[in-house]
Amino acid sequence: MEPGASLPPGPAVPGIGRRLLSMAYEAVLAFAVAFLAGIAFYGAAGGNLAGKARLLFQIYLFLVFGVYFVACWSRGGRTLAMQTWKMRVVRRDGASISVGRAAWRYALAWISLLSLGAGFLWACVDSDGQFLHDRLAGTRIVMTGEAAVQG
Questions:
Q1: How far apart are CA 150 and CA 132, in angstroms?
Q2: Percentage of the chain with pLDDT > 90?
Q3: How many Å apart are CA 133 and CA 83, to the nearest integer?
């Protein structure tokens, strides 16, 4: 399916507010992941986070977050925050996403974030209410369980 094509009928798409609240909860969980990963790196670096060690630390955190998100999205379609808010990421046809597609979505989500959130604001004008990184990755966020029926 082409990036601009309409989605086939399926589960309800969560509203932007629900997705942003899920992202806020995700930020709290990501902080915990970063904190624990940071302690491990700090210890391995002998307490030195200056110069090249700082760049390595940033790359390390990018990879740690990548493993977390890609594993969650490709194994069950959702992170803990998404599960709490009854949402799931799927391919446009509703099937589960592969590790490769999850990794692509992760990379594109960083671009959405680093462009001052423009990729997230895209959902306000997208015909299906999807974020730009979902549109480009061939994924979409849908409601799960009883929330999908209620909308």
A1: 25
A2: 84
A3: 20
